[in-house]
Amino acid sequence: MGKDVIIACDFASAEATFAFLDKFSGKKPFVKIGMELYYAEGPQIVREIKKRGHKIFLDLKLHDIPNTVKKAMAVLSRLDVDICNLHAAGTTAMMQAALEGLTREDGSRPLLIAVTQLTSTDQQAMEKDLLIHEPIDRVVMHYAKTAAEAGLDGVVCSPLEAQKVHETCGKNFLTVTPGIRFADGDKGDQKRVMTPADAKAIGSDYIVVGRPITAAADPVAAYERCVREFVD
Ligand code: C5P
């Protein structure tokens, strides 16, 4: 898989999701399905979007004991998604168990990427709530390195961290980066943002774009603008 734009389909129902995807007529953008849509509609939403020919990043961020994550990943692997993820905080043992669960009998498997520290966690919360006293940048890079050593394919990170992750974990270690906004767009609740063109320049492998596409007056034109800036 090469560089691509992944649309965050943060909708509450299958109906709203298909109304959105129908606007794309012949095109089949890569889509991200998160917890809200998955918990509302169950695995059938994944099967239906897959049947329509889209690639899928299933963003469920698993974090549990290794055996439970292994079994859950085996189920996700049968759903034939392209990328799934977990929390690196679940430890190396959990990440390795996840990879085992995800690997099919023929040796194939979806890509597996790790969430490092959520961008909603800042230094203060990390110290107070998690008792982690290292600088947050160091924690993020440590989690990325742990994920790479466990055999994972990449991390979800801020585009501002993508370059450093590649330097630390190698250029083939994938960086999947949300927090993307057009230069002339609204930032919404995202604080540390980057344009698709800058994310390309800094070496992001995939950008995850939600509201700049889903809330645009013309979502297809906004998607095409992302592809022009990031991929072409
Ligand atoms: O609408 P927006 O472009 O901000 O959506 C970004 C998507 O990426 C959302 O689905 C959000 O949950 C997800 N995400 C994020 N920051 C992270 C991890 C995931 O914005 N650190």
What do you see in this structure?
There is one protein chain. This protein has 232 residues and is an alpha/beta fold. It has one domain: TIM Barrel, CATH 3.20.20. It has 11 helices and 8 strands. An 8-stranded parallel barrel has the order 1-2-3-4-5-6-7-8, surrounded by 6 helices. α1 links the parallel β1 and β2. The radius of gyration is 17 Å and the shape is globular. The two termini are 15 Å apart. The model has no long low-confidence stretch (mean pLDDT 95). Bound molecules: cytidine-5'-monophosphate.
Spell out the key features of this protein:
232 residues; TIM Barrel; 16% strand; binds cytidine-5'-monophosphate
Share in helix:
40-55%
Globular, elongated, flat, extended or rod-shaped: what is the shape?
Answer: globular
Summed over residues and divided by their number, the pLDDT gives a mean of 95
CATH class division: Alpha Beta
Task: Give the bound compounds.
Answer: cytidine-5'-monophosphate
Structural class, from helix and strand content?
Answer: alpha/beta
Classify the beta-strand content into a percent band: 15-25%
Based on the structure, what is the oligomeric state of the protein chains? single chain
